Amino acid sequence: MKRTTMVLGGVALLLTGTVLAQGLPKLAVKKTYRVGFAQTESNNPWRLAQTKSMQDEARRLGHQLVYTDAAGSTAKQVADVRSMIAQKVDAIFLSPREDKPLAPVVKEAAKAGIPVILLDRNIDPALAKAGTDYVTFIGSDFVQEGQRVANWLVKNAKGKTNIIELEGTTGSSPANDRKKGFDDVIRKNPQFKILASQTGNFARDTGRQVAETLLQANPTANVIYAHNDEMAIGAVSAIRAAGKRPGVDIIVLSIDGGKEAVQMVVDGSINYVVECNPRFGPAAFKTLAGYAAGQKYPAKVINADRDYTPQNAKAGLASAY
Protein backbone atom coordinates (compact mmCIF):
# COMPACT_ATOMS: atom_id res chain seq x y z
CA MET A 1 0.00 0.00 0.00
CA LYS A 2 1.29 3.44 -0.87
CA ARG A 3 1.29 5.94 2.00
CA THR A 4 2.34 9.53 1.35
CA THR A 5 1.59 12.85 2.97
CA MET A 6 -0.05 15.76 1.16
CA VAL A 7 -0.64 19.25 2.52
CA LEU A 8 -3.99 20.66 1.41
CA GLY A 9 -5.05 24.10 2.52
CA GLY A 10 -2.37 24.09 5.20
CA VAL A 11 -3.58 20.74 6.58
CA ALA A 12 -1.37 17.64 6.57
CA LEU A 13 -3.26 14.72 5.06
CA LEU A 14 -2.24 11.08 4.77
CA LEU A 15 -2.83 9.53 1.35
CA THR A 16 -3.49 5.79 1.51
CA GLY A 17 -4.07 3.21 -1.14
CA THR A 18 -2.92 2.78 -4.69
CA VAL A 19 -3.13 5.86 -6.90
CA LEU A 20 -5.94 5.22 -9.33
CA ALA A 21 -6.25 5.77 -13.05
CA GLN A 22 -9.02 8.29 -13.34
CA GLY A 23 -12.07 7.28 -15.36
CA LEU A 24 -14.09 10.30 -14.28
CA PRO A 25 -15.67 13.38 -15.83
CA LYS A 26 -13.19 16.07 -16.76
CA LEU A 27 -13.31 19.38 -14.93
CA ALA A 28 -12.14 22.46 -16.78
CA VAL A 29 -9.63 24.73 -15.08
CA LYS A 30 -11.55 27.90 -14.22
CA LYS A 31 -11.08 30.81 -11.86
CA THR A 32 -14.39 30.13 -10.14
CA TYR A 33 -16.81 27.21 -9.97
CA ARG A 34 -20.45 26.62 -9.15
CA VAL A 35 -20.24 23.71 -6.74
CA GLY A 36 -22.85 21.73 -4.84
CA PHE A 37 -22.43 20.77 -1.19
CA ALA A 38 -24.96 18.17 0.00
CA GLN A 39 -24.87 18.20 3.79
CA THR A 40 -26.48 15.36 5.75
CA GLU A 41 -27.85 17.40 8.68
CA SER A 42 -27.24 20.52 10.77
CA ASN A 43 -28.35 19.45 14.22
CA ASN A 44 -24.97 19.39 15.98
CA PRO A 45 -21.82 21.50 16.34
CA TRP A 46 -19.68 19.19 14.17
CA ARG A 47 -21.94 19.59 11.14
CA LEU A 48 -22.30 23.33 11.69
CA ALA A 49 -18.50 23.67 11.82
CA GLN A 50 -18.12 21.61 8.64
CA THR A 51 -20.69 23.71 6.78
CA LYS A 52 -19.15 26.97 7.95
CA SER A 53 -15.71 25.84 6.79
CA MET A 54 -17.06 24.97 3.34
CA GLN A 55 -18.97 28.24 3.04
CA ASP A 56 -16.05 30.33 4.28
CA GLU A 57 -13.60 28.76 1.84
CA ALA A 58 -16.01 29.05 -1.09
CA ARG A 59 -16.52 32.72 -0.27
CA ARG A 60 -12.78 33.32 0.06
CA LEU A 61 -12.13 31.77 -3.36
CA GLY A 62 -15.09 33.44 -5.06
CA HIS A 63 -16.89 30.16 -5.84
CA GLN A 64 -20.68 29.83 -5.77
CA LEU A 65 -21.73 27.14 -3.30
CA VAL A 66 -25.11 25.49 -3.88
CA TYR A 67 -25.83 24.25 -0.35
CA THR A 68 -28.48 21.75 0.72
CA ASP A 69 -29.29 20.25 4.12
CA ALA A 70 -30.87 16.79 4.13
CA ALA A 71 -32.08 17.30 7.73
CA GLY A 72 -31.19 13.73 8.63
CA SER A 73 -33.14 12.19 5.74
CA THR A 74 -31.34 9.86 3.34
CA ALA A 75 -34.17 10.17 0.82
CA LYS A 76 -33.93 13.96 0.86
CA GLN A 77 -30.18 13.84 0.39
CA VAL A 78 -30.62 11.64 -2.67
CA ALA A 79 -33.13 14.18 -4.00
CA ASP A 80 -30.74 17.04 -3.16
CA VAL A 81 -27.94 15.50 -5.22
CA ARG A 82 -30.31 14.84 -8.13
CA SER A 83 -31.36 18.48 -7.99
CA MET A 84 -27.71 19.52 -8.21
CA ILE A 85 -27.27 17.25 -11.23
CA ALA A 86 -30.31 18.87 -12.86
CA GLN A 87 -28.82 22.30 -12.14
CA LYS A 88 -25.61 21.21 -13.90
CA VAL A 89 -23.24 22.32 -11.17
CA ASP A 90 -19.54 21.97 -12.00
CA ALA A 91 -18.87 19.49 -9.18
CA ILE A 92 -20.49 18.09 -6.05
CA PHE A 93 -19.17 17.73 -2.52
CA LEU A 94 -21.17 15.09 -0.68
CA SER A 95 -21.23 13.99 2.97
CA PRO A 96 -23.34 10.83 2.50
CA ARG A 97 -25.73 10.05 5.33
CA GLU A 98 -25.61 6.30 4.62
CA ASP A 99 -23.06 4.27 2.71
CA LYS A 100 -25.36 2.24 0.43
CA PRO A 101 -28.36 4.41 -0.61
CA LEU A 102 -26.13 7.28 -1.82
CA ALA A 103 -23.99 5.12 -4.12
CA PRO A 104 -26.44 5.08 -7.07
CA VAL A 105 -26.84 8.86 -7.13
CA VAL A 106 -23.06 9.31 -7.04
CA LYS A 107 -22.91 7.18 -10.19
CA GLU A 108 -25.70 9.26 -11.71
CA ALA A 109 -23.62 12.39 -11.21
CA ALA A 110 -20.60 10.80 -12.90
CA LYS A 111 -22.74 9.74 -15.88
CA ALA A 112 -24.00 13.33 -16.09
CA GLY A 113 -20.43 14.57 -16.36
CA ILE A 114 -20.21 15.96 -12.81
CA PRO A 115 -17.30 14.85 -10.57
CA VAL A 116 -18.13 14.05 -6.94
CA ILE A 117 -15.80 14.37 -3.95
CA LEU A 118 -16.93 12.61 -0.76
CA LEU A 119 -16.41 14.38 2.55
CA ASP A 120 -16.37 12.82 6.04
CA ARG A 121 -18.47 9.75 5.24
CA ASN A 122 -17.71 7.15 2.60
CA ILE A 123 -19.98 4.97 0.49
CA ASP A 124 -19.98 1.21 0.02
CA PRO A 125 -17.01 0.40 -2.26
CA ALA A 126 -18.90 -2.60 -3.64
CA LEU A 127 -21.48 -0.20 -5.10
CA ALA A 128 -19.37 2.74 -6.26
CA LYS A 129 -15.62 3.07 -6.66
CA ALA A 130 -13.13 5.89 -6.25
CA GLY A 131 -11.45 6.76 -9.53
CA THR A 132 -14.43 5.55 -11.54
CA ASP A 133 -17.59 6.86 -9.90
CA TYR A 134 -16.17 9.58 -7.64
CA VAL A 135 -12.85 11.35 -7.30
CA THR A 136 -11.82 10.50 -3.73
CA PHE A 137 -12.93 10.39 -0.11
CA ILE A 138 -11.55 13.08 2.23
CA GLY A 139 -11.97 12.36 5.92
CA SER A 140 -10.76 10.60 9.00
CA ASP A 141 -9.82 6.95 9.46
CA PHE A 142 -12.91 5.92 11.44
CA VAL A 143 -11.63 2.43 12.21
CA GLN A 144 -8.46 3.91 13.62
CA GLU A 145 -10.51 6.35 15.71
CA GLY A 146 -12.29 3.44 17.39
CA GLN A 147 -8.99 1.66 17.88
CA ARG A 148 -7.42 4.72 19.50
CA VAL A 149 -10.29 5.02 21.98
CA ALA A 150 -10.06 1.33 22.89
CA ASN A 151 -6.28 1.42 23.21
CA TRP A 152 -6.50 4.40 25.57
CA LEU A 153 -9.09 2.56 27.65
CA VAL A 154 -6.95 -0.57 27.89
CA LYS A 155 -4.06 1.51 29.24
CA ASN A 156 -6.10 3.74 31.56
CA ALA A 157 -9.10 1.69 32.73
CA LYS A 158 -7.87 1.13 36.31
CA GLY A 159 -10.17 -1.85 36.77
CA LYS A 160 -13.21 -0.41 34.95
CA THR A 161 -14.01 -3.01 32.31
CA ASN A 162 -17.81 -3.18 31.81
CA ILE A 163 -18.71 -1.19 28.72
CA ILE A 164 -21.83 0.38 27.24
CA GLU A 165 -21.40 1.43 23.60
CA LEU A 166 -23.52 4.21 22.08
CA GLU A 167 -23.43 3.72 18.33
CA GLY A 168 -23.90 6.35 15.64
CA THR A 169 -26.48 6.39 12.86
CA THR A 170 -27.16 2.86 11.66
CA GLY A 171 -25.72 2.29 8.20
CA SER A 172 -23.31 5.25 8.28
CA SER A 173 -19.61 4.63 7.67
CA PRO A 174 -18.47 6.38 10.90
CA ALA A 175 -20.78 4.24 13.03
CA ASN A 176 -19.78 1.03 11.26
CA ASP A 177 -16.07 1.73 11.40
CA ARG A 178 -15.86 3.29 14.87
CA LYS A 179 -17.61 0.21 16.20
CA LYS A 180 -15.35 -2.17 14.29
CA GLY A 181 -12.15 -0.45 15.43
CA PHE A 182 -13.18 -0.34 19.07
CA ASP A 183 -14.72 -3.82 19.21
CA ASP A 184 -11.70 -5.42 17.50
CA VAL A 185 -9.35 -4.12 20.20
CA ILE A 186 -11.72 -5.05 23.03
CA ARG A 187 -11.98 -8.63 21.71
CA LYS A 188 -8.20 -8.94 22.10
CA ASN A 189 -8.45 -7.88 25.75
CA PRO A 190 -10.81 -10.40 27.38
CA GLN A 191 -10.83 -8.60 30.74
CA PHE A 192 -13.16 -6.07 29.06
CA LYS A 193 -16.79 -6.83 28.21
CA ILE A 194 -19.27 -4.86 26.10
CA LEU A 195 -22.47 -5.29 28.10
CA ALA A 196 -24.73 -3.50 25.64
CA SER A 197 -24.41 -1.67 22.32
CA GLN A 198 -27.22 0.40 20.82
CA THR A 199 -27.58 3.30 18.42
CA GLY A 200 -28.03 6.80 19.80
CA ASN A 201 -28.21 8.18 16.23
CA PHE A 202 -25.33 10.63 16.85
CA ALA A 203 -27.83 12.83 18.76
CA ARG A 204 -27.45 14.28 22.27
CA ASP A 205 -30.95 13.65 23.60
CA THR A 206 -31.22 10.22 22.00
CA GLY A 207 -27.83 9.35 23.45
CA ARG A 208 -29.02 10.47 26.88
CA GLN A 209 -32.19 8.40 26.66
CA VAL A 210 -30.38 5.29 25.45
CA ALA A 211 -27.67 5.71 28.11
CA GLU A 212 -30.31 6.01 30.84
CA THR A 213 -32.03 2.82 29.68
CA LEU A 214 -28.80 0.85 29.32
CA LEU A 215 -27.43 2.02 32.68
CA GLN A 216 -30.61 0.86 34.38
CA ALA A 217 -30.41 -2.51 32.62
CA ASN A 218 -26.67 -2.87 33.30
CA PRO A 219 -25.94 -1.54 36.81
CA THR A 220 -22.35 -2.85 36.75
CA ALA A 221 -21.43 -0.71 33.73
CA ASN A 222 -18.49 1.57 34.46
CA VAL A 223 -17.43 2.64 30.95
CA ILE A 224 -19.45 4.42 28.24
CA TYR A 225 -17.99 4.68 24.75
CA ALA A 226 -19.93 7.07 22.52
CA HIS A 227 -19.33 7.30 18.78
CA ASN A 228 -19.53 11.10 18.94
CA ASP A 229 -19.46 14.04 21.37
CA GLU A 230 -23.19 14.70 21.24
CA MET A 231 -24.03 11.24 22.55
CA ALA A 232 -21.19 11.43 25.08
CA ILE A 233 -22.58 14.70 26.46
CA GLY A 234 -26.01 13.11 26.65
CA ALA A 235 -24.46 10.15 28.47
CA VAL A 236 -22.87 12.48 31.03
CA SER A 237 -26.36 13.76 31.89
CA ALA A 238 -27.65 10.18 32.16
CA ILE A 239 -24.81 9.22 34.50
CA ARG A 240 -25.57 12.17 36.77
CA ALA A 241 -29.28 11.29 36.73
CA ALA A 242 -28.30 7.82 37.92
CA GLY A 243 -26.55 9.36 40.93
CA LYS A 244 -23.04 8.61 39.68
CA ARG A 245 -20.07 10.79 38.78
CA PRO A 246 -19.17 10.92 35.08
CA GLY A 247 -15.45 10.59 34.54
CA VAL A 248 -14.97 9.09 38.01
CA ASP A 249 -17.50 6.33 38.68
CA ILE A 250 -18.02 5.79 34.97
CA ILE A 251 -15.34 6.45 32.35
CA VAL A 252 -16.69 8.41 29.36
CA LEU A 253 -15.00 8.14 25.95
CA SER A 254 -15.87 10.03 22.78
CA ILE A 255 -14.91 10.96 19.23
CA ASP A 256 -15.16 14.39 17.53
CA GLY A 257 -13.35 16.99 19.62
CA GLY A 258 -15.86 19.85 19.81
CA LYS A 259 -15.16 22.66 22.25
CA GLU A 260 -17.94 21.64 24.66
CA ALA A 261 -16.63 18.09 24.94
CA VAL A 262 -13.02 19.23 25.27
CA GLN A 263 -14.07 21.56 28.11
CA MET A 264 -15.65 18.52 29.78
CA VAL A 265 -12.30 16.72 29.53
CA VAL A 266 -10.75 19.73 31.25
CA ASP A 267 -13.49 19.56 33.91
CA GLY A 268 -13.10 15.79 34.32
CA SER A 269 -16.57 14.57 33.27
CA ILE A 270 -15.26 13.12 29.98
CA ASN A 271 -12.01 11.19 30.14
CA TYR A 272 -10.77 10.97 26.55
CA VAL A 273 -11.73 12.31 23.12
CA VAL A 274 -10.30 11.51 19.69
CA GLU A 275 -10.64 14.43 17.29
CA CYS A 276 -12.49 14.16 13.99
CA ASN A 277 -11.67 17.48 12.36
CA PRO A 278 -14.70 19.10 10.66
CA ARG A 279 -12.81 21.93 8.92
CA PHE A 280 -12.96 20.47 5.41
CA GLY A 281 -13.15 23.67 3.37
CA PRO A 282 -9.46 24.26 2.52
CA ALA A 283 -8.74 20.59 1.75
CA ALA A 284 -11.95 20.13 -0.24
CA PHE A 285 -11.43 23.07 -2.56
CA LYS A 286 -7.70 22.39 -2.89
CA THR A 287 -8.60 18.88 -4.05
CA LEU A 288 -11.13 20.29 -6.51
CA ALA A 289 -8.50 22.62 -8.02
CA GLY A 290 -5.94 19.82 -8.16
CA TYR A 291 -8.37 17.49 -9.89
CA ALA A 292 -9.19 20.12 -12.50
CA ALA A 293 -5.45 20.53 -13.11
CA GLY A 294 -5.08 16.80 -13.75
CA GLN A 295 -3.74 15.62 -10.40
CA LYS A 296 -4.41 11.97 -9.60
CA TYR A 297 -5.86 11.08 -6.18
CA PRO A 298 -5.94 7.83 -4.21
CA ALA A 299 -9.18 6.30 -2.99
CA LYS A 300 -8.84 7.95 0.41
CA VAL A 301 -7.27 11.19 1.63
CA ILE A 302 -7.01 10.86 5.41
CA ASN A 303 -7.07 13.83 7.77
CA ALA A 304 -4.52 13.95 10.56
CA ASP A 305 -6.50 14.13 13.83
CA ARG A 306 -5.27 14.82 17.36
CA ASP A 307 -6.69 13.66 20.67
CA TYR A 308 -7.66 15.27 23.98
CA THR A 309 -6.58 13.84 27.32
CA PRO A 310 -6.72 15.16 30.88
CA GLN A 311 -3.10 16.17 30.35
CA ASN A 312 -3.47 18.21 27.14
CA ALA A 313 -7.14 19.26 26.91
CA LYS A 314 -6.69 22.66 28.55
CA ALA A 315 -3.92 23.61 26.13
CA GLY A 316 -5.96 22.37 23.13
CA LEU A 317 -9.25 23.98 24.10
CA ALA A 318 -8.69 27.22 22.17
CA SER A 319 -8.17 25.40 18.86
CA ALA A 320 -11.13 23.02 19.24
CA TYR A 321 -14.08 23.77 16.97
Going by CATH, the architecture of the largest domain would be 3-Layer(aba) Sandwich
What is the CATH domain class of the largest domain? Alpha Beta
Cα shape: elongated
What's the CATH topology name of the largest domain? Rossmann fold
Helices and strands: which structural class? alpha/beta
Q: What is the helix tally?
A: 10
Q: What are the segments in which pLDDT stays under 50 over at least 5 consecutive residues?
A: 1-22
Q: For the residues shown, what is the average pLDDT?
A: 93
The total strand number stands at: 14
The amount of helix comes to 25-40%
CATH superfamily of the largest domain: Response regulator
Subcellular location: Cell envelope
Organism: Deinococcus arboris
Domain Periplasmic binding protein: 35-296
InterPro entries: Peripla_BP_I, SBP_2_dom
Tags for this entry?
Rossmann fold, single chain, alpha/beta, 321 residues, eight-stranded mixed sheet
Describe this structure in words.
It contains 10 helices and 14 strands. With 321 residues, the protein is α/β, with parallel strands linked by helices. α2 (74-86) packs parallel to α3 (103-111), α4 packs parallel to α5 and α6 packs across α7. The model is unreliable at 1-22 (pLDDT under 50). It has 2 domains: 3-140 and 278-304, Rossmann fold, CATH 3.40.50; 142-276, Response regulator (Rossmann fold, 3-Layer(aba) Sandwich), CATH 3.40.50.2300. Pfam families: Peripla_BP_4. One of its GO terms (molecular function) is carbohydrate binding. Keywords: Signal. This is Substrate-binding domain-containing protein. InterPro entries: Peripla_BP_I, SBP_2_dom.
